[in-house]
What we know:
Blueprint: E1 3-10, H1 11-17, E2 30-36, H2 42-48, H3 65-86, E3 91-92, H4 102-116, E4 121-126, E5 131-136, H5 141-160, H6 179-182, H7 185-198
Antiparallel strand pairs: 1-2, 1-4, 3-5, 4-5
Helix pairs in contact: 4-5
Amino acid sequence: GNLRMLEYVGKSALDFLRARFPDIPKTAAAALLIEGEDLEGWDDRLEAASAMAEASWFSTEPRDRERFRKFRHSLPELVIEFVTRHGFMKMGTDYAVPVGRNRDMLRYYQRRLEQELPGHYVVYGHIGDAHVHVNMLPASSSQAETAASLLKEFAAQAVEMGGTVSAEHGLGKRKAGMLALQFAPEYVAAMMTVKRHLDPHWLLCRGNLFPAPTA
């Protein structure tokens, strides 16, 4: 049918959301937010996927959109509350892979996060584009070091699968070094040449992606 949106909310994210939505089943492994125009065949799809149809939300009315909007926007709010309470910065990915590697990347995230940071991460986002976000939520210095290491590991894994280290939000200053994980030195040098040509006085976005000239 005409699929407009396919969003993923992983089990760890559902655990966070349960504080505001206590009716989320504790046995739920994940949630999918699906928006489309074609209603036909969904009963069969849900049954084939062993979905929790009785616990799922369905709506064809505009007035019900607010419920879905609150669900989608509650997770970032809860994440901010968590990191504010614990005093450590959230570390998030913006990586994407080819759709054919979607499952592989998601499994990799889940396996490594459960090994290294159980209970201190959420996975959610644009799974229809093979572009889910991992937010790592350290609550100690050692967990912050682990999260920083995983951030680089996940970037390298995404590139190895043919993906990108920046699918939506850009790299900025903190993640500028990841450009070299995806592009060979000669390509980075070519980008800097273009930057110098268009912005010879280095006035725009100083320190974003490329270090500003020292002189």
